[in-house]
Amino acid sequence: MKGKKKLKTWLIGITAVVAICIALYQPLVNYLLPQASNPNGFLGRITTKIWTTYFQDLSRWSFTHINLDEHDTILDVGFGGGSSIRYVKEQDTKCIIYGVDISEESVKTATEVNQEYVDAGEVILTLGDVVDLQFEDVFFDLVVASQTHIYWDELENGLLECYRVLKHNGILLITSEIDKLEYHLPEYKNPDDFVELLYKIGFIEVDVKTSNNYIAFICKK
Asked: Whole-prediction pTM value?
């Protein structure tokens, strides 16, 4: 009898824990998801700090698909923790890199990560939105969007802005994790559909590369 009573108590406890987890799951998801697209507050600060190391491998893989020129002017859209920017500067390049991100925490973290280059005027980071880039037409040799286009509220308008600020023969490099792309942009789960959109924007050549969970779209204007 004691064994049955103990088992019943244990089952009631487990059921209560499961019920609490179910009740908290959606509110927790609703709170955490916006942090991925626009980190803010204390949790946003932690998120951007994690990004500085988490996306290092994606950054390295991304830049294997293009040739950097030391005189390039580059725009990093949605730079997050600043790992892509630091990777480029560590290649001993004289490139001038501008960065735009909608998150104040990203600007703070990426500035700290690239402080010496910011101080030297080789990296310029600002708060802004991809749909309203504060740069003149045909200004950049390369625009980079790494693990960010999947969060844009206005994807096509953001791509149009990237196209506008690119020089003729310039490159838009879009990379992301495949599982994140499929989750956040299920309508572009098939890469061919996204390539079709890029051609619609005006790019004359789009090359697609994949490796494990990474995908890259190399778009020539």
From this structure: 0.79
